[in-house]
Amino acid sequence: MTEESRKKSSSFSKPSDIRRMALARKARKERDAERKKNRELEFRVKQSTRELRFANDKLQAEIAERKRAEEELRESEEKYRAIFDSFYDIYYRSDMKGTLTAISPSVKYHGGYEPEELIGRPITDFYPDPAQRDELLKRLREKGAVNDFEIKMLAKDGSILDIWVSTHFVRDRDGRPVAVEGVLRNITDRKLAEEKLRNSEEKYRSILEAFYDVYYSADMAGIVTAISSSVQVQTGYSPEEIIGRPVIDFYPDSSEREEMLRRLKETGSVDDYEIHMLSKDGSIFDVLVSTHLVFDGEGNPIAVEGVLRNITERKRAEVELRESEEKYRVLFENAHDAIFLLKGARFVEWNSQTLRMFGCTGAQLKGEQIYRFISRHKSDSGEDSKAVALEKFNAVLYGEAQFSIWKMTRYDGEVFDAETGLARLQVGGETLIQAIVRDLTAIREKKVGE
After folding, report:
1. DSSP state letters, 142-192
2. In Å, how far from its chain's centre is CA 382?
3. Residues in Cβ contact with 345 at an 8 Å cutoff, skipping those fewer than 6 apart
4. Minimal CA–CA distance to 90: which of 103, 99, 102?
């Protein structure tokens, strides 16, 4: 060690220097500790900030979800409130003894009763067949609920209505049944319509089930090159018996083929051209043929292909339908009640009894408004007949069938009592009102005369 080194070493070995060094190290450690503490604090702050931000985002999402749910609930409530307000079925409630405790106002449209006339009465008063009520209760006790159980009920005028009832027990907190509530749906008109529809469907089902189009292809010489297997159902021939044979073999009248080919050459295709064809047993059937030319890449015709549709049964059905329409037209024209259709409030179609009832001609009635024939006189119920009519027509346009008795007038101003049924019809995309009117005054006068 040199003298200089010894001096330098000696200079750092003084007690004051050692203390300074110790203090410096302590200060350094404290600064390091403080920085570490600050970093940890900063980390915790950032962590807390992230957690708060996440919690805030989650809270905002929950608030948005709650608002959305509340909005959906509000819209749902409004929707179902609107449905209930326009509810045409009959809601009812009875106690366990079968006494009516509540019933909706719509009962008046169907049964003719005011709700006040029914509340407090035994529900059995309205069953023409008590056995149906017993069976309904039996099923209700077994299952706790019954859906679309068909019954018959009595209207105020004594007529019998076909009804679907859906009902269930109302239970207390202990699960004990304390009441019965449900919905009654008047299906009288529907059953009549279903019966007509069923008859119509049965008539045409056989046609539809047996209906198979036939695909075919032939070369330009008229030789069949392909045909679908459905040809056997239509003609009795198997595909193998036809392929390779000239198409002309199956035409009882060759001029029909010549005319079809002429049109095909002129336009390149033919749609729904009616011809006659021969089946295997020699019988002739009616066919609609839709066909077109097949061209090669250079635009040259190389084949003819198309579809044959057997319309023999359809043509027969059209004849039957025309006969059926004529039959119902006769019934319509010879009905004892006035039957007419209104577009808005104007007459668009009517039967002969309508002209007789109102005492006018078709020319006088055409385009005339129904209000021309509704009296301002008070009805038996004390209501203004014209006001009642306006209310009924508006209800019908909303799909609510109506039945009323009001005062009407003939073309010459004579007032008469009329029993009127109204219903909404959709015909060819148009909304019409069908009215069936019975002249009660004429009926009473006839009875008096007898």
Report:
1. HHSEEEEEEEEEE-TTS-EEEEEEEEEEEE-TTS-EEEEEEEEEE-HHHHH
2. 39
3. 369, 370, 371, 393
4. 103
**Predicted TM-score of the model (pTM):** 0.34
Instruction: Report the interhelical angle of 188-209 vs 312-333 (nearest 10°).
Output: 160
Say what the pLDDT of residue 100 is. Answer: 93
What confidence tier does 394 reach under pLDDT thresholds 50, 70, 90?
Answer: confident
Residue with tokens 């106002």: 105
Element (H, E) at 111: helix 107-111
CA distances from 417 to 12, 354, 422, 440, 446 (A): 133, 15, 16, 5, 14
Confidence band of 210 (pLDDT split at 50, 70, 90): very low
Query: Which residues, in sequence order, are bridge partners of residue 409?
Result: 415
Tell me how far apart the alpha carbons of residues 140 and 134 are, in angstroms, rounded to a whole number. Answer: 10
H or E element at residue 47? helix 15-85
Structure tokens of 359? 């005492």
Please name the amino acid found at residue 362.
Answer: G
CA atoms within 13 A on the CB side of 316: 9
DSSP for residue 124: G
First to last CA, the chain: 159
Q: How many C-beta atoms lie closer than 10 Å to residue 204's C-beta?
A: 15
DSSP state of 444: H
User: Which residue stretches of 236-374 are H helix?
Assistant: 239-242, 254-267, 312-333, 352-358, 362-365
Beta bridge partners of residue 422, listed in sequence order: 402, 435
How many Cα atoms occupy the beta-carbon half-sphere of 141 within 13 Å? 6
Query: According to the model, what pLDDT value does residue 208 have?
Result: 35
Cα distances from 23 to residues 19, 32, 35, 96, in angstroms, run 6, 14, 18, 96
Let me know: does 302 contact 294? Beta carbons within 8 Å.
Answer: yes
